[in-house]
UniProtKB/TrEMBL annotation, chain A:
It comes from Salinarimonas soli. Pfam families: CO_deh_flav_C, FAD_binding_5. SUPFAM superfamilies: CO dehydrogenase flavoprotein C-terminal domain-like, FAD-binding/transporter-associated domain-like. InterPro entries: CO_DH_flav_C, CO_DH_flav_C_dom_sf, Diverse_Substr_Oxidored, FAD-bd_PCMH, FAD-bd_PCMH-like_sf, FAD-bd_PCMH_sub1, FAD-bd_PCMH_sub2, Mopterin_DH_FAD-bd. PROSITE patterns: FAD_PCMH. This is Xanthine dehydrogenase family protein subunit M.
Automatic annotation (TrEMBL), chain B:
InterPro entries: 2Fe-2S-bd (IPR002888), 2Fe-2S-bd_dom_sf (IPR036884), 2Fe-2S_ferredoxin-like_sf (IPR036010), 2Fe-2S_ferredoxin-type (IPR001041), 2Fe2S_fd_BS (IPR006058), Aldehyde_Oxdr_Iron-Sulfur (IPR052914), Beta-grasp_dom_sf (IPR012675). It holds the Pfam family Fer2. Residues 19-95 form the 2Fe-2S ferredoxin-type domain. The keyword Transcription regulation does not apply. GO terms for molecular function: 2 iron, 2 sulfur cluster binding; metal ion binding; oxidoreductase activity, acting on the aldehyde or oxo group of donors. Keywords: 2Fe-2S, Iron, Iron-sulfur, Metal-binding, Oxidoreductase. This is (2Fe-2S)-binding protein. It comes from Salinarimonas soli.
Length: 332, 191
């Protein structure tokens, strides 16, 4: 590890002040992604600003929604009775993410900003445009089994690996952000940027911007929802493909639909074509299949990750069936 | 060269790299000088010579370094020593109180290891698991021990050992209390 200095702060304003002073001053929360990247030499901050003392670590329930403090740990949010009951898509996304130990440490704010698992990004012996702008992208013609099939550019095809952000999109969540210019809100759906020609810029946050909370409006709690992920081993692994589905029904007719996918896009990926197809129709097995077929609209494989295209379609179909109470085993 | 290296020269804030920290480990306070980069795992092993906590991957992926901090199981390789001041840290060395802790005893009786390298992490994780109460079925135990890898494949016996520790009078809610009391008694004896 390259030497860095360390300070801890007791309130959001101090955190913002310290990190807006210049490049290379970074927040550390649970530390679980930061320490991995420091150990591997992928990141070399000048200073880490420890934000564990700022509070914002609880879940509070209001009449119009739920506020999850950015410092809340994954384990606590996954176990929160209101999250489990009203927003199962969020609880399920967290429940089997990482390991019990990591879930006790990792914060929800840090989770949204975790960096890609692209093999080249995490290996400093290789070039990578995201890590060293302009050095090239070996993944496009190399080992790209875990990389993205949606949203890639000629400069980067790294998949966004996290689960929580995908579920939050299906729950219409937004973020409370405090920065040098004051407070604002950012839809989770708008947090991450496509790689384009600047894959090293991943989020719409500026230096000094601190996420203080996640807000989930209660409307999302009135829908039925589910998070389904498919991965290389049963647990303790990032998703190869995942689907977050949140549907409002009248009988079997879909009134409102939110569908997002993880593990397949350069950002958490909202599937608007799937949503549009569902609204106003009766959800049955045939519709679940028809909608799943649209999940990979615009997708492109790079060899090693071609399998993700059919996998994504099936994952979305399966998640829709689950929310619609349609058993996957019965004949059509 | 990383982008940030260019900014090193014109870094404005007053940097502090070395820290005198107080770590409370197994009931005892230790004051030591650490670099900001020192992980809690390295501080425990290399500075306090508590080598029961093992280093496997250093990346949070194997669980060998599992300890309990403020009542929760964590991996000590993914946190900095300087971030853990004033917290109650329990390592495998702090578990036994004259007699072995029930989970330690059960691991021996069930032969829940071969080479033994992952064992301190497995045991600390199991103590955390039992306290969380996520032990209602074999599947639940397996899922919630998934953060601890065992290359010898002693998994079956690990699940048996955990169930036995619970069955033999180790009330889940008491597991942590017992560990904490053991530490307090040890600290008392030494004082
Ligand atoms: C072994 C392992 C397995 C994992 N498996 C999964 C998985 O299956 N699914 C999944 O989704 N994730 C998984 N993860 C990722 C893990 O969930 C994230 O590392 C974790 O949530 C990051 O949170 P943190 O608090 O530790 O962040 P840190 O490491 O402290 O910070 C991460 C980044 O976020 C920034 N940051 C942190 N908090 C804020 C804030 N409030 N405002 C602005 N910026 C902030 C930091 O500056 C840093 O850039 C896994 C991690 C490990 C180590
Ligand atoms: S896909 Fe992106 S992160 Fe991976 S090597 Fe290419 S530029 Fe780097
Ligand atoms: S050494 Fe910490 S999890 Fe492997």
């Amino acid at each position: 590890m390259v030497p860095f200095s360390y300070t801890s702060v007791a309130d959001p304003q101090a955190a913002v002040r310290r990190t807006s002073e210049g490049h290379g001053v970074e927040f550390i929360a649970g530390g679980t992604d930061m320490l991995q990247l420091l150990q591997e030499g992928v990141r070399a901050p000048l200073e880490l600003v420890d934000i564990n003392g700022i509070g914002f670590d609880d879940v509070s329930v209001a009449v119009d929604g739920v506020r999850i403090g950015a410092m809340a740990r994954l384990a606590d949010v996954a176990d929160h009775p209101v999250i489990r009951e009203r927003f199962p898509v969020v609880a399920e996304a967290l429940h089997e993410s990482a390991s019990p130990q990591v879930r006790n440490m990792a914060t929800v704010g840090g989770n949204l900003l975790q960096r890609t698992r692209c093999l080249y990004f995490r290996d400093v012996a290789t070039p990578c445009n995201k890590r060293v702008p302009g050095s090239g992208c070996p993944a496009i013609e190399g080992q790209n089994r875990i990389n993205a099939v949606l949203g890639g550019s000629p400069d980067c095809i790294a998949a966004y690996p996290g689960d929580l952000a995908v579920a939050l999109i299906a729950a219409d969540a937004e973020l409370m952000v405090v920065g040098p210019k004051g407070e604002r809100t950012v839809l989770v759906e708008k947090l991450h940027r496509q790689p384009g020609s600047t894959p090293h810029v991943e989020a719409v946050l500026e230096p000094g911007d601190l996420i203080t909370a996640i807000w989930i409006p209660i409307a999302a709690g009135g829908r039925l929802s589910h998070y389904l992920r498919v991965r290389d081993r049963a647990t303790f692994e990032w998703a190869l493909a995942s689907a977050a589905v949140s549907l409002g029904f009248e009988g079997t007719r879909v009134l409102e639909a939110r569908v997002a996918a993880g593990g397949v896009g350069t950002t958490p990926w909202r599937l608007r074509a799937v949503e549009e197809l569902l609204v106003g129709r009766d959800l049955d097995r045939a519709l679940a299949h028809e909608a799943g077929e649209r999940a990979a609209d615009g997708a492109r494989g790079y060899g090693g990750n071609d399998f993700k295209i059919p996998l994504l379609k099936k994952t979305v179909t399966r998640a829709l069936m689950r929310v619609g109470g349609i058993s996957p085993g019965e004949p059509a | 060269m990383l982008e940030v290296d260019k900014d090193r020269a014109r870094h404005a804030v007053q940097p502090q790299h070395a820290f005198l920290v107080t770590l409370k480990v197994n009931g005892e306070e230790h004051r030591l000088n650490v670099d900001a980069r020192t992980t809690l795992l390295d501080a425990l092993r290399d500075r306090l010579h508590l080598t029961g906590t093992k280093k496997g991957c250093g990346l949070g992926q194997c669980g060998a370094c599992t300890i309990i901090v403020d009542g929760r199981r964590v991996v000590s390789c993914l946190t900095l020593a300087v971030m853990n001041q004033g917290k109650e840290i329990t390592t495998i060395e702090g578990l036994a109180n004259g007699a072995l802790h029930p989970v330690q005893q059960a691991f021996i009786e069930h032969d829940a290891f071969q080479c033994g390298y992952c064992t301190p992490g497995q045991i600390m994780s199991a103590v955390g698991l039992i306290q969380e109460g996520r032990t209602r079925s074999d599947d639940e135990i397996r899922e919630n021990m998934s953060g601890n890898l065992c290359r010898c494949g002693a998994y079956t016996n690990i699940v048996d050992a955990i169930k036995d520790a619970i069955a033999h009078g180790l009330d889940p809610r008491e597991a942590m209390t017992q560990a904490v009391e053991a530490i307090a008694q040890d600290a008392g004896r030494e004082a």
